[in-house]
Amino acid sequence: MTTPLVLASTSPQRRAILEQLRLPFQIVPPVYDELPGTSPLERAAGKARSVDGGESPVLGVDTEVLLDGALLGKPADESEAEAMLEALGGRTHEVVSGLCLRTAAWEELHSETTYVTFRTLTPRELAHYVSSGEWRGRAGAYAIQGLGASLVERLDGDFLNVVGLPAALLVRLLATRFAGAYGFG
What we know:
Layout: E1 5-7, H1 12-20, E2 25-27, H2 40-49, E3 58-67, E4 70-72, H3 78-88, E5 92-102, E6 107-118, H4 123-132, E7 152-156, H5 159-163, H6 167-177
Parallel strand pairs: 1-2, 1-3
Antiparallel strand pairs: 3-4, 3-5, 5-6, 6-7
């Protein structure tokens, strides 16, 4: 039997992606304070390092949304969500994830960037999306795996990275570090 991954996250999106990939895993919430000014890679490493995986590999991930280098966090209310979405309309932004996969013997640190271009959005479309409430708790004020897909014109990179876990990167690492053990490599 393959040793399950230890996911240092409580994110339902990350859990769903690991289930989609049919990877065995268990969730251990990280004990880590995210510091302002740190990168997704630093935060992913901090999360993974805060968890003792025993014999299992530990996975830490952190994702952020950037528009022209400015961080778009999770909007506090509807007006902030609408302002973020309006800023994203007709433009390309970056979704950057840091990923840390580690065991007691080694650690892999990698970043993944996906470029997302939104359609030009009308006031009616903005109001419709904001009224859906899907923006709540979402960096950049949208969820691409839901109604937010209707806002997107083009995507360059890993779709699942935008959802919350750079799956192609994770699969490459598992295929290299654990050839055949998780069904990859």
